[in-house]
Design brief:
The complex is a heterodimer.
Chain A: H1 2-8, H2 10-35, H3 43-59, H4 64-86, H5 93-115, H6 142-147, H7 151-169, H8 171-181, H9 183-188, H10 193-219, H11 231-241, H12 246-270, H13 276-295
Helix pairs in contact in A: 1-12, 2-7, 2-10, 2-11, 2-12, 3-4, 3-5, 3-10, 3-11, 4-5, 4-10, 7-8, 7-12, 8-10, 11-12, 11-13, 12-13
Chain B: E1 2-6, H1 12-29, H2 31-36, H3 41-53, H4 56-81, H5 89-104, H6 112-141, H7 145-165, H8 200-217, H9 219-229, H10 231-236, H11 241-268, H12 279-289, H13 294-318, H14 323-344, E2 345-349
Antiparallel strand pairs in B: 1-2
Helix pairs in contact in B: 1-14, 3-4, 3-13, 4-8, 4-11, 4-12, 4-13, 5-6, 5-7, 5-11, 5-12, 6-11, 8-9, 8-11, 8-13, 9-11, 12-13, 12-14, 13-14
The chains are: A mainly alpha, B mainly alpha.
Protein name (chain A): Nucleoside ABC transporter membrane protein
Main location (chain A): membrane
InterPro entries (chain A): ABC_transp_permease (IPR001851)
């Protein structure tokens, strides 16, 4: 049975985790924003910015971790812009998010083209390499499947722990969750709704940008136009599927990665009969299905999409 | 301290001028990236203006570029009026084009007075049907239509690629993934010799007029506006909200489908998978610049088309990347969004004073 063979190969699980990594960052980022009550449709563009800035920083000699830092800062900057538009100004989160996506994407493309006007094959960088952890990486099957990933994958997993710790175990997390459910109660506590929301959007956007950076600094070693290809929108669907919980977000991203890795391998088996596009559609259709499955009983943050103005209920 | 005070009466002249100011602001802001890319700023604006309006040829290019944007802008504006967030005009454009090609590239032979209405109808049905899916997922299952329409764009594009590499591939296309050409009976004629402007523009203008009348004077238009303003109030007033959403979805999708028909039958003559450089997404900007008004859509589409055509020509002349156009378009969206504040609110700069514990003005 070739399908079972696919599932039993270490290579498959390694690919599933690799595909899931940018989504883990993206879903976490979207989750942080939405938990604070703001939908961030800038995600697709912030992925592009993260991918471009991270790559370019490394290309200019900032080093891999310098690239990560710059990608995160660039993401946070666009998050700040989205935050200003949607929180104190209270503008439509849908339209502002789309505007941020268009703006961030075109800024990235314009910068890339301006820096590299005439290159046919994009320059490459020395990307993150899979780690060789003593003992763990050498375990049979489990080693190559789970532990021969790059540092960024482990960073993503650490972020899951960090986000769930902050959200559920610290006063700050309580305030962030409250500001997405009942902002007037937060204001009554003497906390600033604006600061909490903008801060959450910036942090979430930084996470999204890391998802983009993973693509140019770990999965590949160059920046391509159109390389994000809807990954951001998939994250927006997955965050509903994960019912705004970091643990479930990780699970959703991994499940998605497994499906995607499976379809790529299936393509090799039956690709001669079925056009490749059918397989490429699967991730998008899966996201739609995931969204539809949970949409009715989804427990949206109660103040999601609702701007908050002081002294007004 | 900045304070927003709701404005009770908005002078229509002011509301009319704001999007124009927003567009101009975006254009002015473009000076920063142009200068950063090493371009001579004033010369660049000269090239943009000349490239868009400088000759009869330029004007024809401008209006040919505006045509699909009028359709997608209308599609988005109708949907947004009802707060149905259709971001799927891109996909609907492609299925519209696909339907037009399926019928108009030789499958049926009939005189053009039959063929042209037929491909128009086919494109509208295809686009409307595609938009029906996310609309029903929204009304029946509560799935957010922003995400579903966005994701469907990618699915549709892959489907079009599949058709163009498979059953609909032109055997005479030198191996390129493109459809067979439209028959001459299924081609929208050019308006002038040796220019690319075609009768799709007239169809676009007529569509804008029809949508204008529908929104202003018909029961449907009233229901759409009422649903968009307040769903629960509309429900209480006895407006069939669900069927209004479905109607809006169908109309919006059909309009975006028309964009595809017009591109394929009027401009390109055959379908490729890159026939739209994001007309669907740009439609959102057009609709917002237009303040969701059908007449405004026409003006906004011409403005955005001018940015694209002008920037293309500036880019050729000065070597500044043509992504500058996308940058201006994105900035106009943000500027017009911000400017909408000035319509709804008076903005006052006030000295911060000690805020009382219970906020005033609670009514």
């Amino acid at each position: 049975m070739e399908y079972i063979d696919i599932l039993l190969s270490a290579n498959f699980w390694a690919a599933a985790i690799r595909i899931a990594t940018p989504l883990i960052f993206g879903v976490l980022g979207a989750l942080v924003c939405e938990r604070a009550g703001v939908l961030n449709l800038g995600i697709e563009g912030i992925f592009v910015v993260g991918a471009m800035c991270g790559w370019m920083a490394v290309w200019l000699g900032a080093g891999l971790w310098g690239g990560i830092l710059i990608a995160a800062l660039a993401g946070a900057f666009f998050g700040l812009l989205h935050g200003i538009l949607t929180v104190p100004l209270g503008l439509s989160q849908h339209v502002s998010g789309l505007g941020i996506t268009m703006f961030a994407t075109s800024v990235s493309y314009f910068t890339y083209r301006t820096a590299l006007p005439k290159v046919s094959s994009p320059p490459r960088i020395e990307a993150f390499q899979p780690l060789d952890i003593p003992v763990l990486s050498d375990l049979p099957f489990i080693g190559p499947a789970l532990f021969q990933q790059t540092s960024m994958t482990f960073l993503a997993l650490a972020m899951v722990l960090l986000v769930s710790y902050v959200l559920y175990r610290t006063p700050l997390g309580l305030a962030i969750r409250a500001v997405g459910d009942n902002p007037s109660a937060v204001e009554a506590q003497g906390l600033s709704v604006f600061a909490l929301r903008i801060g959450a959007i910036m942090a979430g956007s930084a996470l999204m940008a890391l998802g983009g950076a993973f693509l140019t600094m770990s999965a590949f070693d160059a920046f391509f136009f159109g390389m994000i290809n809807g990954r951001g929108w998939i994250c927006i669907a997955l965050v509903v599927f994960a019912s705004w919980r970091p643990g479930k977000a990780l699970l959703g991203a991994l499940l998605f990665g497994a499906f995607d890795a499976f379809q790529i391998r299936l393509q090799n088996e039956v690709g001669a009969v079925i056009p490749s596009q059918v397989f490429l559609m699967i991730p998008y259709l899966l996201s739609i299905i995931a969204l539809v499955l949970v949409a009715r009983k989804a427990d949206y943050p109660r103040a999601l999409l609702q701007p908050y103005f002081r002294g007004q209920r | 301290m900045i304070r927003f005070e709701p404005r009770s009466n908005v002078s229509s002249l002011f509301a009319f001028a704001l999007p124009i100011i927003a567009g101009i602001t975006a254009l002015v802001l473009a000076a920063i990236p142009i200068a950063a890319a090493g371009g001579e700023v004033f010369a660049a604006y000269g090239h943009i203006f000349k490239g868009a309006f400088g000759s009869k040829f330029a004007l024809s290019e401008l209006l040919a570029r505006a045509t699909p944007l009028i359709f997608t802008g209308l599609a988005v504006s109708v949907a947004f009026r009802a707060k149905l967030w259709n971001i799927g005009a891109e996909g609907q454009l492609y299925v519209g084009a696909l339907a037009a090609v399926a019928i108009g590239s030789g499958a049926i032979s009939a005189p053009s007075y039959i063929m042209i209405p037929l491909i128009i109808l086919a494109g509208m049905i295809a686009g409307g049907t595609l938009m029906l899916v996310p609309t029903l997922l929204k009304t029946k299952l509560g799935a957010d239509e922003v995400v579903t329409t966005l994701l469907l764009n990618f699915v549709v594009l892959l489907f079009v690629q599949m058709m163009l590499e498979g059953p609909m591939k032109d055997p005479m296309g030198m191996g390129w993934p493109q459809s067979e050409p439209m028959t001459s009976a299924a081609t929208l004629p050019k308006m002038f010799a040796r220019m690319r402007i075609h009768w799709g523009l007239v169809i676009a203008l007529v569509s804008a007029l029809i949508i204008y009348i529908m929104m202003k004077r018909s029961v449907w238009g009233f229901e759409i506006r009422a649903t968009g303003e307040n769903v629960s109030a509309a429900k209480h007033a006895g407006i069939p909200v669900t069927s209004t959403f479905i109607k809006v979805g169908l109309i919006s999708g059909a309009l975006a489908g028309l964009a595809g028909v017009s591109e394929v039958a009027g401009l390109k003559g055959y379908l490729t998978a890159d026939i739209s450089p994001g007309f669907g997404y740009t439609g959102v900007v057009v609709a917002m610049l237009a303040g969701l008004s059908p007449v405004g859509v026409v003006v906004a589409a011409v403005f955005i088309a001018a940015v694209f055509v002008g920037a293309d020509s500036m880019s050729r002349a000065m070597g500044v990347s043509s992504y500058i156009a996308d940058l201006v378009v994105a900035m106009s969206l943000i500027c017009v969004l911000v400017s909408s504040l000035f319509v709804c609110f008076k903005i006052r700069f006030v000295r911060p004073k000690k805020t009382p514990l219970v906020a005033k003005g609670e009514a």
